[in-house]
Design brief:
alpha+beta; GMP Synthetase, Chain A, domain 3; nine-stranded antiparallel β-sheet; five-stranded parallel β-sheet; 39% helix; binds adenosine monophosphate; jasmonoyl-L-amino acid ligase activity
Length: 598
């Protein structure tokens, strides 16, 4: 009903969207049953469900008893046939309109997933919902948005389907464009900047986003990107290029060294419209007055109301830096979803990102949760090792417990294990509020030790606080590797840190040694501590990287076709990822070994 009204162009009513959300979340159990019924009725005849003997039944009990839990590897052969051109109803009754590629930066391998109009609809629903709550808290009217967004390359599968990121698939849809006009502030940059220089050469788009943002300074109300990392990267770049940006504004010409694609240059110069020396002087004055770039966003964009993007999970590391650039401006964590489908919206936008939760939309898919009990051994997420129990339904989860998300979607996923660990932090009406904990399969492990992505993050944070903060040193980015390459010596953890020091090789050796020892001590899972004491795991190795290393890692992923807008720094690099390991090795300026257990 609401969707139809908005399609007819009758505008956006935040209060109506919120009322609908309240109704759905109050009736979550009934809405879930109905959602499953709709998915299964629509797809009753598909090969996958037919072969499992579901025989057209649509109730949760039959579904759970006939259909097993599945991973991406289980579904891959089916998705591959579809990508190769088999148009029979394999996973969905309606044919897939394109293929989505997951980022693969967390798991090392890009996955193919089906994309169809249902995913466009659910994207609009989740954007509308989170916008309605955000706009109630921080109303923005008709201003502009400084968005650090970049289009992704599109390829064709063997069967002729377009393959690209889920967000690009969504943006291409006409229905999406029509609806989003109501609920999205206009981007400062012309389309040429977003679409014109995608792929590995995104730096000219980034430069132009900054330039266009400065030209529209008074109108900008939102600063955003899909992931917090892109906003931080943008302002780290701004620190280096602000004088060039000012020179371009002063002369009315875009630097030919920075922006080489003629269509992009022309579009931005048209926006510039000629020399603007007063504006250039004003920007320069503001930049010079800043102390270490603290509060650069509100200083240059005085009408910005908030900074928006995914700031949870592997993005949490960037929140500190983001807060520095944002000064007093609120940081608002964006919604929780995956290329597989959406899960929850942030309906409490004023909550700091570290505490952000995601309220599951009960009609967006059918959700189950595998209860996970962290096994003994400490570690924030139980060292990534869990005892599992039978999956429970959306409304049966318990506050304070951790679960792996299982989803059944309108896009051909049935009881699909997403691989994400979440914790239930409370309920909004009858539907749970989830806190993202970590991805399950990412862990450092040599023998009986298990450390998850979150354990690593906590260790890096603890070492930075204990050893680096007093020296005004910050961790720009980090990753790790379980080194088991030597057959004679025990395996050990390697932690790679890029620091904010211009010359990392010149950083005091004692400070780095203490950081290395603190890191080793900060892995508190019993398997690790025990193995370190018995020397079954060798001394932790700290590798200090030269400035800009993670930009090289980013470029490496982009050269392999990964989209910049989806990039998440890999937090654990396996031996098979030799490209990244080579970059890390070539950029290492100092190597230290922990003496914490000597
Ligand atoms: P992709 O496979 O590239 O679509 O990335 C999806 C994955 O990104 C999810 O399964 C999560 O692990 C992570 N992710 C997405 N949204 C969030 C969020 N709001 N907070 C934390 N992690 C997220």
């Amino acid at each position: 009903m609401l969707e139809k009204k908005m399609k007819q162009g009758s505008g956006f009513s935040g209060e109506e969207v919120i009322a609908e959300f309240e109704r759905l979340t109050k009736d979550a159990a009934i809405v879930q049953r109905e959602t499953l019924r709709r998915i299964l009725a629509e797809n009753a005849g598909v090969e996958y469900l037919r072969d499992l003997g579901l025989a057209g039944r649509t109730d949760p009990d039959s579904f759970r008893s006939c259909v097993p839990l599945a991973t991406h590897a289980d579904l891959e052969p089916y998705i591959e046939r579809i990508a190769d051109g088999d148009s029979s109803p394999i996973l969905t009754a309606k044919p897939a309109t394109s293929i989505s590629l997951s980022s693969g930066t967390t798991q090392g391998k890009r996955k193919y997933l089906l994309f169809n109009e249902e995913l466009v609809k659910s994207t609009m629903q989740i954007y509308r919902t989170s916008y309605a709550f955000r706009n109630r808290e921080f109303p923005v009217g008709n201003g502009k948005a400084l968005q650090f967004i970049y289009s992704s390359r599109q390829t064709k599968t063997k069967g002729g389907l377009t393959a690209t990121t889920a967000t690009t698939n969504v943006y291409r849809s006409e229905e999406f464009k029509a609806t989003m006009r109501d609920i999205q502030s206009q981007c400062c940059s012309p389309d040429e900047v977003i679409f014109g220089s995608g792929g590995a050469d995104f730096s000219q788009s980034l430069y132009c986003h900054l330039l266009c943002g400065l030209l529209a300074a008074g109108e900008v109300q939102i600063v955003s990107a899909t992931f917090a990392h892109s906003v931080v990267l943008a302002f780290q770049t701004f620190e280096r290029v602000w004088e060039e940006l000012c020179a371009d504004i002063r002369s009315g010409e875009v630097s030919p060294a920075r922006v080489t694609t003629p269509a992009v240059r022309n579009a931005v110069e048209a926006l510039l419209g000629g020399p603007m020396p007063e504006l250039a002087d004003e920007i320069a004055r503001k930049c010079v007055a800043l102390s270490n770039w603290y509060g650069v966003i509100p200083a240059l964009w005085p009408n910005a109301r908030y900074v928006y993007g995914i700031m949870t999970g592997s993005m949490e590391h960037y929140v500190k830096k983001l807060r520095h650039y944002a000064g007093e401006l609120p940081l608002v964590a964006a919604e929780y979803g995956a290329s597989e489908g959406w899960i929850g919206a942030n309906v409490e936008p004023a909550t700091p990102p570290e505490l952000a939760t995601f309220t599951v939309l009960p009609d967006i898919g059918y959700f189950e949760f595998i209860p996970l009990r962290p096994l003994d051994g400490g570690g924030a997420a139980g060292g990534g090792c869990y005892a599992e129990a039978e999956p429970v339904g959306l409304t049966e989860v318990a506050v304070g417990e951790q679960y792996e998300v299982v989803m059944t979607t309108f896009a051909g996923l049935y009881r699909y294990r997403l691989g994400d660990v979440v914790e239930v932090s409370g309920f909004h009406n009858a539907t749970p509020k989830l806190k993202f904990v970590c991805r399950r399969n990412l862990m450092l492990s040599i023998n009986i030790d298990k450390n998850s992505e979150q354990d690593l993050q906590l260790a890096v944070d603890a070492a930075a606080r204990a050893a680096l903060a007093a020296e005004k040193l910050e961790v720009v980015d980090y990753t790790s590797h379980a080194d088991t390459s030597s057959s004679t010596s025990p395996g050990h953890y390697v932690v790679f840190l890029e620091l904010n020091a211009e010359d990392a090789a010149a950083v005091d050796g004692d400070v780095l040694q203490s950081c290395c020892d603190e890191l080793d001590r900060a892995f508190v899972d019993a398997g690790y501590v025990g193995s370190r004491k018995t020397k079954a795991i060798g001394a932790l190795e700290l590798r200090v990287l030269q400035r800009g290393t993670f930009q090289k890692v980013l470029r490496h992923y982009l050269s392999l076709g990964a989209p910049v807008s989806q990039f998440k720094s890999p937090r654990c690099v396996s031996r098979s990822n030799s490209g990244v390991l080579q970059i890390l090795a070539a950029c290492t300026v100092k190597v230290l070994f922990s003496s914490a257990y000597d």
